[in-house]
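Pinned message: reference record for Winged helix-turn-helix transcriptional regulator
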Amino acid sequence: MLTIAPEIEVLARFGRALADPIRCRILLVLREAPAHPADLADLLGVSRTRLSNHLACLRDCGLVVAVPVGRRTRYELADVRLGHALDDLRTAVVAVAADVTCVDAAEEGCC
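Predicted structure (tokens):
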């Protein structure tokens, strides 16, 4: 049975998904259009096993869904609003990053 997750849980799941660069790339690709795992693996340059693990994480976080298409499975964002949220986050990060000056990247607490 599907339920609506509380707000804090939704943010935590989104953060967990975005914590890995490969999952970020998967979400950005799926923001453009649904895709099959083999195509995603080729596009991202990762093994199908590794991609499968990341897709499982994104499914568990509730961000992507698997849609059966004949004998294959296609992945897409679970909600079109996630694409808008990704766009908003990317824009916000760019705006913040432009204002940051970081003298020593190895410095603790530095971006």
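Pinned by admin. Summary line: The radius of gyration is 16 Å.
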